[in-house]
């Protein structure tokens, strides 16, 4: 009888994979040299026994947290340079997340977050307290304001503190991994600088990245993903720049541009629709203005 078999005999509630987890049950997860994993219900084991087992075995790697076929494919693509998974999705968004603890069933957490965001979204774990939610974007996808409600619900249900970083929309194409890498780097960098921010997004993070000496490649990437779709529209760029320079005063900006206020509003709405930047908010207006200035010098 091997060691895991003996442990299953000693702890009747022990299981061989996260797909077998019982709702509401917490587990100690261990892995042997052959790669087998075992989850022992925390209530069935003492602290001394847990400490002994953790000296004899290792904690499972991130691959053991991604049990579904889709999770494994996306994990391999994002972290191991495998091929882009075949999907019918056209656009996605990465929502990076950090958890304060993992004292709950990860499968229950996956079920909860995907049901709140969209049933076809995929949560890919980096480890038991970090992961990325790959959200298929559609007309009824959650906005940033709705993420606050999502965060409050999950924190209340699982007694966990969460931090989210909402990336921007991306086409499902070969450059997707680079977008993921840059967004993750930005999140990791800003998380330490903004400890009180529970939800971050690219526009809010940009001024902080800039103040810390943003690498040139990420600076160019920021320009492309946030305002790249409108850079060739000189009239639109000039309108937005003038509007922000006028302190977001629509009447003043319209006079400066010699256009009707309704025409100004139409251009602002067009800019927001094409970039996702709502320049009526300070964070988005600041980032839009900085990117416009930088793009003219790149």
CA(first)-CA(last) distance? 67 Å
Task: Give the name of the CATH architecture of the largest domain.
Answer: 2-Layer Sandwich
Ranges where pLDDT stays below 50 over 5 or more residues in a row are: none
Dominant shape = elongated
Q: Helix count? A: 12
At CATH level 3, the topology of the largest domain is Alpha-Beta Plaits
Assign the CATH class of the largest domain: Alpha Beta
Helicity level: 40-55%
Biggest sheet descriptor: 5 strands, mixed
CATH superfamily of the largest domain: Reverse transcriptase/Diguanylate cyclase domain
Q: Which structural category fits the helices and strands? A: alpha+beta
Order of helices and strands: HEEHHEHEEHEHEHHHHHH
Strand fraction: 15-25%
Describe what this molecule looks like in 3D.
The chain is an alpha+beta fold and 298 residues long. It is 49% helix and 15% strand. The strands form 2 sheets. Strands 4-5-3-6-7 form a 5-stranded mixed beta sheet, sandwiched between helices. Strands 1-2 form a two-stranded antiparallel sheet. It starts with a helix and ends with a helix. The model has no long low-confidence stretch (mean pLDDT 87).
């Amino acid at each position: 009888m091997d060691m895991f078999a003996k442990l299953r005999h000693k702890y009747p509630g022990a299981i061989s994979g996260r797909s077998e987890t019982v709702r509401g049950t917490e587990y100690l997860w261990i892995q042997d040299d052959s790669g087998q994993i075992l989850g022992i219900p925390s209530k069935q084991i003492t602290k001394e026994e847990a400490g002994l087992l953790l000296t004899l075995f290792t904690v499972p790697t991130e691959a053991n947290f991604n049990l579904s076929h889709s999770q494994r494919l996306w994990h391999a693509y994002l972290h191991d340079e495998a091929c882009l998974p075949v999907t019918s999705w056209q656009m996605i968004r990465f929502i990076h997340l950090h958890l304060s603890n993992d004292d709950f069933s990860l499968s229950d957490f996956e079920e909860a977050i995907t049901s709140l965001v969209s049933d076809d979204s995929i949560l890919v774990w980096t480890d038991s307290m970090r992961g990325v939610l790959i959200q298929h974007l559609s007309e009824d996808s959650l906005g940033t304001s709705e993420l606050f409600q999502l965060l409050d619900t999950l924190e209340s249900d699982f007694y966990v503190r969460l931090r989210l970083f909402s990336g921007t929309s991306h086409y499902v194409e070969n450059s997707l991994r680079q977008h993921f890498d840059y967004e993750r780097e930005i999140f990791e960098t800003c998380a330490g600088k903004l400890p009180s921010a529970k939800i971050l997004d690219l526009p809010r993070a940009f001024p902080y990245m800039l103040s810390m000496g943003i690498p040139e490649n990420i600076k160019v990437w920021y320009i492309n993903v946030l305002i790249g779709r409108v850079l060739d529209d000189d009239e639109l760029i000039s309108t937005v720049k003038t509007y922000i320079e006028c302190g977001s005063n629509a009447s003043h900006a319209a006079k400066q541009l010699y256009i009707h206020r309704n025409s100004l509003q139409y251009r602002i709405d067009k800019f927001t629709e094409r970039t996702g930047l709502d320049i009526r908010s300070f964070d988005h207006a600041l980032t839009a203005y900085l990117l416009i200035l930088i793009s003219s010098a790149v």
